[in-house]
Design goal:
two-stranded antiparallel ribbon; about 50% helix; 4 strands
Length: about 350
């Protein structure tokens, strides 16, 4: 069997020199592009304010929540109207329960258990957005302080399925866990216990080889995670996991085990195009269903998108390509420092 560390070093030597040419070949989304301008105009409109007041999150994928997160992932959150960010924070602060109920009898009367409870991955995404928009998530949404630590399970992760917390052996979810870890990693100053939360959460992910190993059945937890997706929103792929753990190791001055990374690295390298770019290939955005306003109530149906999302959700991606080479550079730095085990 090939030594995992040697395999990672060989991959780094082969792939890293392609960075500059790959980024030059990857399409750039600019603030001046018409699809971006359309999103910014929509977020500044009375319709956006009305949508946020009606529901901060739904419908998927075309409410202000998803438009703002798309700008975040494109590195364009500075284009978002300040009023839209503040309205989103205010709507979240006022609408959702200040805790995560495990059973229906914990949900107060008059509260919709589906639409009035914020899950961990959604709060993680929101926290990253607010931080990127130069807002303190804990000040914007005070009840969010300490949320992630409060709901961390013994295995190190979180789970947006409330039933998981009542099982004899609770199990976390990668999808639920990663946005929360990203949110805390983004914070320049962390509260007591948050560094330990991050370390335990990263260990949870590394144990599962970034999703390439199910501890119960072997093989990938979800084979689709090997294929990149964009925008991620709360969705997961192994590049997202790789980015998280390499950033954490550099910031925390910790080592990473090559054995936990090599399968994800090789899967991603196999998906890199001849020009060095990485493309979004999954259809999650096209297949999802949503909750949507229907008259005086809410119903379920197919989700909708918007022009900017349609433009970036398939094909060569500058953000994915940059994330790939950033992770490789971080790994090379860790190896040089003797922190690739």
């Amino acid at each position: 069997m090939t030594d995992p560390r040697a395999a990672v070093l060989e991959l780094l030597e082969r792939e890293r020199p392609r960075r500059d040419a790959a980024l030059a070949a990857a399409p750039l989304v600019r603030a001046s592009d018409p699809e971006v301008a359309a999103v910014v105009d929509a977020l500044a409109s009375p319709g956006a304010a009305a949508s946020l007041a009606d529901d901060p999150y739904w419908p998927k994928w075309d409410s202000p929540w998803w438009q703002l997160l798309t700008l975040l992932e494109l590195g364009l959150v500075d284009q978002a109207p300040a009023a839209a960010l503040d309205a989103l924070a205010g709507a979240v602060r006022e609408k959702y329960l200040a805790f995560f109920p495990f059973t229906e009898d914990q949900v107060p009367p008059g509260t919709d258990p589906y639409r009035d409870v914020l899950c961990h991955c959604a709060l993680g995404c929101l926290s990253r957005l607010l931080h990127a928009g130069e807002r303190d998530p804990g000040e914007a949404v005070p009840w969010s302080r300490g949320w992630f630590l409060r709901y961390q399970l013994p295995d190190g992760g979180l789970n947006c399925d409330e039933a998981a917390y009542l099982r004899p052996t609770p199990r976390s979810s990668v999808v639920s866990t990663v946005p929360a870890l990203e949110a805390l990693l983004d914070q320049p100053e962390r509260a007591a216990g948050e560094d330990a939360f991050l370390a335990r959460g990263v260990h949870y992910l590394l144990q599962r080889r970034l999703g390439c190993l199910s501890l119960s059945k072997g093989g990938p937890i979800d084979a689709s995670w090997l294929d990149p997706v964009f925008p991620r929103f709360y969705l997961y792929d192994v590049l997202r996991g790789l980015t998280l753990v390499t950033r954490w190791a550099r910031a925390a001055d910790e080592a990473l085990p090559a054995e936990a990374l090599v399968e994800a690295l090789e899967a991603l390298a196999a998906r890199v195009a001849p020009d060095g770019t990485l493309a979004a290939t999954r259809d999650d955005h096209a297949l999802a269903r949503t909750v949507r306003r229907e008259g005086d109530g809410w119903g379920k149906g197919p989700s909708s998108t918007f022009a900017l999302l349609e433009r970036v959700r398939r094909g060569p991606s500058r953000p994915l390509t940059r994330a790939w080479y950033d992770a490789l550079d971080d790994l090379a730095a860790l190896a040089a420092e003797g922190r690739l085990a």
